[in-house]
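Below is how a single chain appears once it has passed through the pipeline. First comes the sequence as given, then the structure the pipeline wrote out for it. We keep one example in the README because the format questions we get most often are answered faster by looking than by reading.
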Amino acid sequence: MSISLRSLILLPIWISMAHIQQGGPDEKEKTTALKDLLSRIDLDELMKKDEPPLDFPDTLEGFEYAFNEKGQLRHIKTGEPFVFNYREDLHRWNQKRYEALGEIITKYVYELLEKDCNLKKISIPVDASESEPKSFIFMSEDALTNPQKLMVLIHGSGVVRAGQWARRLIINEDLDSGTQIPFIKRAMDEGYGVIVLNPNENYIEVEKPKIHVQSSSDSSDEPAEKRERKDKVSKETKKRRDFYEKYRNPQREKEMMQLYIRENGSPEEHAVYVWDHFIAQSAAENVFFVAHSYGGLAFVELMIQREADVKSKVTAVALTDSVHNVWHQEAGKTIREWMREAPTVTS
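Resulting structure:
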């Protein structure tokens, strides 16, 4: 006997209605409500098992978008801002499209840091082997040699990377609103060296290797007939699982695994690493930090780990919409006092 997917979807509701109909007047009202609910279900929509391929362009031009002279993202043909709901009722597909565009914008901002801001891309760990996972930061030419002033920028958590404050603002507003570029250019104009941290680049993703499990029947002394029955059951189970998976996740994405970057596996680790290998080695007499959101927490953790060094070198800190908490992070009394008394701007 074969049962359609439509029947499987409706079966729980039919069973509920059958139980309810055996009751009194109150139960009949519930039956009416269930029937009303049933009439509103768009079974055709529920039955859709395919969505457009998750195959997106890898350039802004491919998406038919470009940044205009005001730094706003606009459609090349219509001049309209970015539209998230490109395909109605396909939220997952629209989200994947948005993420694909976001990755292109990340690379675009990296290019701007190098070409427009004249920053250098520095690979870390500094002693990484050719085969191990790596990250990078950006620095001005004089970041380590400027004797007077050094500006350090730390963004928040999430999908943003070096040079960004907020991807949403870059896409929906403009580059000046969502990137660190205005901060970098002004700092350099005023004679600061600049270091741009990249605290969310903590790992690389690689495809998970396929594990071939040897069938237990290969080395078994079971009779051939019994092995055949077990193999048949296994195949049927796999068939049912694949059938379910097709509807749950129409497009199987590759299974990925994360390979963490040595000494940079978290934003906090990254801040300490960049301090030890770059900021602490710089010639600047005065170091200034601008730390946004989770970047503020990373800065406080840096203070906890390197209190004396930070106090001797850091002149002022701007914490913008910071999520740090000196109590939860168990910052000592001397750190709390320094943050109260030092030029610390919180917004």
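The two ends are 66 Å apart (CA to CA).

See the next section for the split statistics.
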